[in-house]
Please model this.
Amino acid sequence: MAGLLKRALRLRTALRCLCDYSMLSRSTATLSPVDFHSPFLTCSSEQVLASTRKLHAGADGSKVSPSAAPERLPFCRVTEEDLAFFRKILAGRTIVDPDLVEPSNVDWLKSVRGSSEVLLRPQTTEEVSQILSYCNSRNLAVNPQGGNTGLVGGSVPVYDEIILSTSLMNKILNFDSISGVLTCQAGCVLENLSFYLEERDYIMPLDLGAKGSCQIGGNVATNAGGLRLLRYGSLHGTVLGLELVLADGQVLDCLSTLRKDNTGYDLKQLFIGSEGTLGVITAVSILCPRKPKSVNVVFLGCETFEQLLKTFQLCKGMLGEILSAFEFLDSECMRLLNTHLKLPNPISDCPFYIVIETSGSDPTHDAQKLHNFLEEAMTSSLVSDGTVATEEAKIKALWSLRERVTEALTHDGFTYKYDISLPVERIYQLVTDMRKHLGNRAKSVVGYGHVGDGNLHLNVTSPSKDPALLAAIEPFVYEWTASCRGSISAEHGLGLKKRNYIYYSKQSQAVALMGNIKAMLDPKGILNPYKTLPDNLKQ
Amino acid sequence: MSGRVLVGVKRVIDYAVKIRVKPDNTGVVTDGVKHSMNPFCEIAVEEAVKLKEKKLIKEVVAVSCGPQQSQETIRTALAMGADRGIHVDVSGKDYENLGPLQVSKILAALAKQEDAQLILLGKQAIDDDCNQTGQMTAALLDWPQGTFASEVSLEGDKINLVREIDGGLEHIKINTPAVITADLRLNTPRYATLPNIMKAKKKKIVTVKPADLGVDVTSRLEVLKVEEPPQRQAGMKVETVEDLVVKLKEAGRV
Model:
């Protein structure tokens, strides 16, 4: 296969991450965990800044981006014999045509590109088991891939890892309409599961903007948060069971549908949020809530962030048990929605906007509560303007103002995305400080997100990739976050881009233990290499 | 000239809802199903409120024919800027059989009673797709009609109208009083903002019965059967040419 040989030469020198500017990975490899003072061991913010700045200096003092891809690890390369084996178990579903593999090599943001030449599309757990068993024995790296909607470069290969797609594993296995437990294969698209459940008077416990493409296996592997977490909790609570295939091909059946089961260690919790590095999820059983009979969406405008927070408190007090989402966006977001997506502002221009959703079982009861809350919010001037929607079409329209900010940003230029957990009262301070810090080096600096969960999505755009801008943003944003003991990745995960920043939010002993677990479950490290865990962890 | 505009608003099943036929095939399921204002009626309300904001007319009266819940639809119109509402109470079997002919008789009677100068309606309702009420109302009143309007401007006691027709755009000038039906591109309905929603709760809605207006709502039409359109057969994707040949043979095509 002349094509394979030609590409092999290029692979060694090609740049993986399109937003890095150097491949001095050896320098980051010499920094061991003990070199870092964890932000939690010392409370002095100066020490935090000093120690974490080491992360960003190469051994020779030159600036290296920790999100740059490391050198290729010594996995084997795919041969003709390997392809013959795959074709035997997956006839017609072993894709080597470069045009067909290409979309799976690039992430949704078009910010990272791999050079995989093989895309496998199993339909059953047995096939996944055979694939992994073979790859493990042959020391071939594997990149599990669901809907490829991740935002941290975790879903696409870095080099020539074989892409293992769950797209054809899209069967719903069972739904129990009494307990509300849905059991399905990992490749089911979230929106399709929602449609299926809605016909049966239930809903999925999570909802996100990517619902039309993301798959439940990927959602679980990344412990996706989303718009309903405020009401229904995280996947750590709603997932009742998993079926997995481990690195050596062993099938681990933890696919329980029991609400309560305290028999031994709860293994599935380890895999939820493991980003495909500990095992490949092949089936999920999840507890689903009843579809609410009455859904209202309110879009409000506030003059200051303090008023927004007071509105949140008022909301929790007066709407309490029917509150199902509390999201915010700033005026910059609205400007981008108006400009790039032609979505009009439903109310007058305000510095901050809130999207509140209520879900309940009695429309009259909910309408009354909502009316009381809105009256109170308006008369106490916490809110300067707003609108309410009860009809599906209007509800979708108001939600799209929050859900499509990500899309609007892609039209504004190259986007630097930060997904931060902070104490709620400090959330917007980071955006203000970042604006001041960057001045006019950046095109737009916007803040939006799940303010009800203390989760900020901070985004910076520039007309094109700008290493100087990146250097100004990082490590400023991570140091700022660490100084408040926040999380540098609230829900997006670490993937490729943020793997080396883990120390900003986790102690080194904890990270070392993660490394031990990875080594135990995947000794050859074939599952989604280069992701999630930092480069300097020796297995 | 009263400067009064009558706007008809119909309560229909929300367009985003999946319609289900009743098991006895007598109609569609409406119980517990989300209802909202007909989208074309929303456009009509928006146009009326715009005319009032331009001070070309003095009062907007929202009218709806139906059961108690129709008042919610009127409230929405009030929240968008209508001044008061008239609820024509029709329920039960009469409501199930209510169609354009009866509604246009009601609107004609109300137009005379309220001394309306203009009637603004949606071009059609998304549940029955009749597209008849506006035309019939104009005929009953012997008023000119501007249907499928995509642009409306008042010029003294005349109205300049652009109509969207199959051949393109038709420009006409009609006298007042008149009936206008709104098409999709006439305007983009505003969101009802909180201050207006609060104000709307204080605006008046008067309830009348068809008999009070001298209208007989018995229908001359009888629905025999309602059924779903035939299910569209899904296509099938195959992975290899061999699969395709096998499937074609199975289907007897080869």
